[in-house]
Structure formats: structure tokens, C-alpha cells
Specification:
CATH class of the largest domain: Mainly Beta
Shape: globular
CATH topology of the largest domain: Jelly Rolls
Number of helices: 4
Oligomer: single chain
Distance between the termini: 64 Å
Number of domains: 2
Helix content: 10-25%
């Protein structure tokens, strides 16, 4: 944990969700842990970190009155893992961005909060804090927004770390027979850049209402509410702090009931975070080893003893 942050923080996000005619279509958004932590501590937490998420919790609370069937939600969390390859891709783009900023004179002590920041995928390219890189050099008039996942598109001014990294890292080749070049076995992976990783949590806020047969107009009902903290077997190393949220809701919205809605509260337990920037290499000059007085005196004694023996 960085200095000045003695505890593992919990950050929260709320979103309104409701029943729909197609429960297979989730409500989606992206959470940015760097922004959430900056708001929590009242100081800037850079996005160029890997954020270790220890656990998550989702819960539902009702909005308004007149609940009919209640709601249940399954929430999927997707993220880009920090690996050797994804970190190398990020640093490659970061160096390009920093060099272009220096050439343009747009970096320095008088320019605050302009860090190198990405967005999760091309589907969220509208994220206003996304940094741009002139892939055609300084003469390129349109900077491409930097995304982690998706397809690069010069027309739409989009550049992804996934595409960029695979363009300069050789594609793995299959093993072949030497006499006819036939394939023995294909490689177990087709790309170096890591795919999205996922985990899930769920919550329920349900009701059960039925009419009592012998008492017309009288209803019998019951309700349950359930949610809990999901502890991950090992911390999820979330690169740049982007967590994509997909929330599926059931039951279906029908013509005979009022559409129920609820507030989905998402709690994220951030264990720690660490910079993605490679540390600076130490100078190659060798340090001279200073001999202590004790060592020198020991050497002098040995010389004296040799002379006395002679």
C-alpha cells in the first residue's frame, strides 16, 4: 500500500436498473477506480497503475412503492489483467504520448492533471479523459484515442493497445516436420496480449404475493433480500483501474404488472495499487568498495609478520 494510505479502501457506485422486455440485454457501464479513489482521498491517484481488487459486493434496494415480483441481478465484472505483455504495451504507448507532449511543449509544471489515460475499449471511446496519440507523427492533425481492447480504426481515430502490441510482436508459429513442412502441433495461444478476465456477484430483492382464496381482496406476501461480499481467491490485478460492469435483471417485464426498478449498489474492495511505469535502471558505473580501517590494519600486521619471519 502506498505511503499515506494505511487501510484497504472500499469504493462505491450506484446505478438505477429496472425490468425490461429482454432480460438477456444487460445494463452496462465502466467504473474507473483511479477516479473513485481520487474522490475518496481528495488527491490525484494516477490511472497508470495496476489496482488489486480483493473483493466485491452488489446489493439491491427498492425505488418507490408497488413492488410486484421484485428483482434479482447477476453482475459481471470484466477487466484487462496486468501481465508482462499488457504492461509492455502500456509503456510503449506511454512513451509515445510523453515524447509527443514534450515536442509540442504541452507538458510541464504549469500543466496539471494531464496524465496518460486510456479507456477500456472502443465501445467506451466517449470517455472524456481518454488521451490521444498522433499515430501519423506530429503532422497528423487528428489524435487517436487510446483504448485497451477493440479494433484500431484510423477513420474513427481509435488506437488500441491490443492491436498495437500484436503488430510488433511475432505471431507464434506451429511446429512442423522438417521433410515436408507439415504441421505437427499448433501453438496453444494465438496472441500475446491477454484476453479480458471476469468474475461475478449477485443480489436478490424478491417478493411473493398471492390472493387468499376465502378472503377476496386480501393478499398474502413474503419477501427476501440477499447479498454478500465475494472474496476473490487472489486479488484481481486490474490494469488502469477499468472495471466493466454488466448487470442482468430478472424477472421479465409483463403487461399485467408494474415495471419494478431498484438501485444497484456496487462496493469494491481495493487492496493496493502499483505503478505500471518501468523503474529507472541504475547507472552502469561500478561502485568502488571502500576498505575499512580494520581491514587495512589487518593487512599491515600480516606484512609485518612476514618481514619478522624472514
Amino acid at each position: 500500500m502506498p505511503f499515506g494510505f494505511p487501510f484497504m479502501p472500499l469504493v462505491h457506485h450506484e446505478m438505477t436498473i429496472s425490468q425490461s422486455n429482454n432480460p438477456a440485454m444487460p445494463a452496462s457501464t465502466v467504473l474507473h477506480l483511479d477516479t473513485m479513489l481520487s474522490e475518496l482521498y481528495g488527491k490525484s491517484i494516477r490511472q497508470g497503475n495496476t489496482f488489486n481488487v480483493k473483493g466485491v459486493q452488489v446489493s439491491l434496494r427498492p425505488n418507490g412503492s408497488g413492488y410486484d415480483s421484485g428483482l434479482a441481478s447477476t453482475v459481471r465484472f470484466s477487466y484487462a489483467p496486468t501481465t508482462k505483455h499488457s504492461r509492455k504495451a502500456w509503456n510503449h504507448a506511454f512513451v509515445q504520448w510523453a515524447n509527443q507532449k514534450k515536442l509540442a511543449g504541452r507538458i510541464g509544471q504549469n500543466i496539471n492533471n494531464d496524465d496518460f489515460e486510456t479507456t477500456y475499449s472502443t465501445s467506451y471511446s466517449g470517455y472524456t479523459r481518454t488521451s490521444g496519440i498522433n499515430m501519423g507523427g506530429m503532422n497528423d492533425s487528428d489524435a487517436d484515442k487510446v483504448c485497451i481492447y477493440g479494433d484500431s480504426n484510423e477513420t474513427s481515430n481509435l488506437m488500441t493497445l491490443e492491436d498495437m502490441y500484436e503488430s510488433f510482436v511475432p505471431t507464434p508459429e506451429p511446429s512442423r516436420y522438417h521433410w515436408n513442412n507439415g504441421i505437427i502441433k499448433a501453438p496453444k495461444y494465438s496472441s500475446h496480449f491477454p484476453e479480458e478476465r471476469r468474475f461475478a456477484a449477485s443480489a436478490t430483492l424478491s417478493t411473493s404475493v398471492s390472493e387468499a382464496g376465502e378472503y377476496p381482496g386480501v393478499y398474502l406476501g413474503g419477501a427476501t433480500s440477499q447479498s454478500g461480499m465475494v472474496l476473490l481467491p487472489e486479488p484481481a490485478n486490474v490494469m488502469c483501474g477499468h472495471l466493466e460492469i454488466d448487470a442482468w435483471m430478472i424477472a421479465d417485464d409483463t403487461a399485467t404488472q408494474v415495471e419494478d426498478s431498484a438501485t444497484l449498489l456496487i462496493t469494491i474492495w481495493v487492496e493496493s495499487w502499483k505503478s505500471l511505469v518501468y523503474p529507472r535502471k541504475r547507472s552502469g558505473a561500478k561502485r568502488t568498495r571502500k576498505s575499512s580501517r580494520k581491514t587495512k590494519s589487518g593487512r599491515n600486521r600480516s606484512k609485518t609478520s612476514r618481514k619478522s619471519r624472514r
